[in-house]
Amino acid sequence: MAKAKYVLEVLEFITEKEGDNSWLSQIKHIGYMKGKFKTKKDAVSYYDRHNPHMRSLNAHNTYASDWDPKTKLLYIVRDDYLINATIDCFSIDDNSVEEIKNGCGITKYKWLK
């Protein structure tokens, strides 16, 4: 099976009021989504389909979404370095599946688009 090339990194946009007239904002890494993509275009398509209330993930040609005012989350397409994915996909049916086969742990996934 071919190695997955891309994943979605999940981040939280945090805003805090400082004083009467200013805001501090920062971005906190949450994890990586349990979905795998062959191309960046597939990752954009998957995000866009599941977030019709948002601009396209690649609206600014950066492969990074705006932060969602409802969830405060944003997503960035990243190269897959086989880092442990801990965040459910937009549809849990799309998550990779951990299995034990012949005493060895394997991860099964389908390419998302």
Give start-end ranges of low-pLDDT stretches.
Answer: none
Total strand segments: 5
Largest sheet features: 3 strands, antiparallel
Q: Tally the helices: what do you get?
A: 1
Radius of gyration: 16 Å
Order of helices and strands: EEHEEE
Output the strand order for the largest sheet. 2-1-3
> Structural class, from helix and strand content?
mainly beta
Indicate the percent of residues in helices. under 10%
Strand content: 35-45%
| Overall residue-averaged pLDDT value | 89
Q: What is the straight-line distance between the termini?
A: 17 Å
Shape: globular
List keywords for this structure.
mainly beta; three-stranded antiparallel sheet; two-stranded antiparallel ribbon; 36% strand
Structural write-up:
The protein has 113 residues and is mainly beta. Helices cover 10% and strands 36% of the residues. It has one helix and five strands, in the order ββαβββ. The strands form two sheets. The chain has a three-stranded antiparallel sheet with strand order 2-1-3. A hairpin with a 3-residue loop joins strand 1 (6-18) and strand 2 (22-32). It starts with 5 loop residues before the first strand and ends in a 5-residue tail after the last strand. The mean pLDDT is 89.
